[in-house]
Design brief:
InterPro entries: Cyt_P450, Cyt_P450_E_grp-I, Cyt_P450_sf, Cytochrome_P450_monoxygenase. GO terms for molecular function: heme binding; iron ion binding; monooxygenase activity; oxidoreductase activity, acting on paired donors, with incorporation or reduction of molecular oxygen. 55% of the residues lie in helices and 5% in strands. A hairpin with a 2-residue loop joins strand 4 and strand 5 (393-395). By secondary structure, it is mostly helical. The longest helix has 24 residues, at 139-162. The strands form 2 sheets. Strands 1-2-6-3 form a 4-stranded mixed beta sheet. Strands 4-5 form a two-stranded antiparallel ribbon. It has helices at residues 2-22, 32-36, 39-47, 50-61, 81-85, 116-130, 132-136, 139-162, 171-188, 204-220, 233-241, 254-268, 276-282, 293-307, 309-324, 326-342, 352-355, 359-371, 405-409, 412-415, 431-440; strands spanning 64-68, 71-74, 381-382, 388-390, 393-395, 400-402.
Length: 444
């Protein structure tokens, strides 16, 4: 036993010495604990601290930071987002993306597909469904949810007045309810009715399952075996002895089950409208065949998982600082009122295409998304063949590289010295500067 303990300790020390002093990335600075083990990054993700950690790391160590034994975070406008994530990039996806297809029941989507050619094929299959021309045809259904949100807010105020109390609206709940109801309308032919039930309807369990899925999947992608550890008898025994309830993790499979039921139901019934689900069903592969069930399931799960939460976060990201900015708030109201008066719009809502002609509204939306990206975790890629040199730091081929949406959107070289401050007016200074910021904004 002593010998095995000694061997284990010696192996651990040797691994740490190698990672800190002899690893091909040993010349790149970073936190000692991150250089030692990837578990630190996963722990900070789970704690909900990574969005502040990464800002502090780049402030301390510079534009190229080693955040894990074989992983580097990059913050450099010259190398840029498009060099890592843009069309035609040579930086290929890592094994982390396989976690998003860990159930084994669904096919990869364009997001989770690692093969470049397959990724392109899958994008083309559903491109028509996600085209703006397709979404605009469903604008009236979105407007119905906007109207419902106003009714719900009015009901909340009326209920509060009956008790002579203030009406307190938790916008985290209501923006999420709004986003999911819109998703239901344009995606699946009908609202989830979360606004009507003030976030407490039957569909709440799906929202909770999606939240849990993102928490678990984003972190488990770095684990050997991905989610297979959940099925391990050893893990189950340890959790039982530690009095840890694993039953909640069964929710991870609820989203797939729900998507499966929606597809089967739609195939049995005639569609009342051409929503996204129907367009997925009507889509064809490159050889003219309909998508098979695993492919359909992948697209529906992806839509459920990414379609509403990110939207709700984006709404809150703009709405929160705006209501605290009294000058900006009044400026936006005046812009909208002026647009109504100038275009004689009394009696109807402003359409999406008309919103594009409201410069301050667009600035508020961009600034909100810039300040608080909906996706906080970094999307890893492999450094291309031959490696790359960024800010005089050579990064060998096969190294995991990524950019933080948070850090990228706070880059003072792009957004100015006040990049950490809410300032929608930065988007209105000049067309040249706006184009430059648009190019480097990770969430617009």
């Amino acid at each position: 036993m002593f010998i095995w303990g000694f061997v284990l300790a010696a192996s651990l020390v040797a691994t740490l010495v190698y990672r800190h002093y002899f690893h091909p990335l040993s010349h790149i600075p970073g936190p000692k604990i991150g250089i030692s083990t990837r578990a630190w990054q996963s722990w900070r993700y789970l704690k909900g601290q990574w969005h502040t950690d990464i800002l502090e790391l780049h402030a301390r160590y510079g534009p190229v930071v080693r955040i894990a034994p074989n992983a580097v975070s990059i913050l450099d406008a010259n190398y840029g987002l498009r060099a890592i994530y843009g069309h035609g990039t040579k930086a290929t996806k890592t094994d982390w993306y396989r976690i998003w297809n860990s159930s084994g029941k669904i096919s990869n989507t364009a997001f989770s597909e690692i093969d470049v050619n397959e990724h392109s094929r899958k994008r083309k299959q559903v491109a028509k469904a996600y085209a703006m021309t397709s979404i605009l045809k469903m604008e009236k259904y979105i407007q119905a949810i906007v109207d419902q949100s106003r009714e719900t807010f009015a009901e909340c105020v009326a209920d509060a007045r009956k008790g002579e109390t203030w009406a307190v609206l938790d916008m985290a709940v209501y923006t999420q309810a709004f986003a999911f109801d819109v998703l239901g309308e344009i995606g699946f032919g009908g609202s989830f009715d979360l606004l009507k039930t003030r976030g407490e309807g039957p569909s709440k369990s799906i929202v909770e399952a999606i939240d849990l899925s993102f928490l678990v999947l984003a972190n488990s992608g770095y684990l050997p075996g991905k989610l297979r550890w959940l099925k391990s008898n050893g893990i189950r025994t340890i959790c039982k002895l530690a009095n840890i309830d694993l039953s909640r993790l069964q929710q991870l499979f609820k989203v797939t089950q729900y998507a499966d039921e929606m597809i089967l139901k739609r195939k049995q019934e005639k569609a009342s409208r051409t929503d996204l689900l129907q367009q997925f069903i009507d889509s064809k592969t490159s050889d003219g065949k309909p998508l098979d069930h695993p492919e359909l399931l992948g697209e529906v799960v992806s839509l459920l998982g990414a379609g509403a939460d990110t939207t709700a976060i984006g709404i809150r990201a703009a709405l929160g600082p705006l209501v605290l900015d009294r000058t900006g708030y009044r400026k936006l109201i005046e812009e909208i009122d002026s647009f109504y008066a100038t275009h004689n719009l009394e009696g109807r809502e402003i359409k999406y295409t008309e919103c594009l002609d409201l410069p301050y509204l667009q600035a508020v939306i961009k600034e909100g998304l810039r300040m608080h990206p909906s996706i906080q975790f970094q999307l890893p890629r492999f450094s291309p063949a031959g490696g790359v040199t960024i800010c005089n730091a050579y990064i060998p081929a096969g190294t995991e590289i990524s950019m933080s949406p948070v850090a990228s959107n706070r880059d003072k070289a792009v957004f100015g010295k006040d990049a950490d401050i809410w300032n929608p007016d930065r988007w209105l200074e000049s067309n040249e500067r706006t184009a430059w910021m648009d190019k480097h904004n990770a969430t617009v």
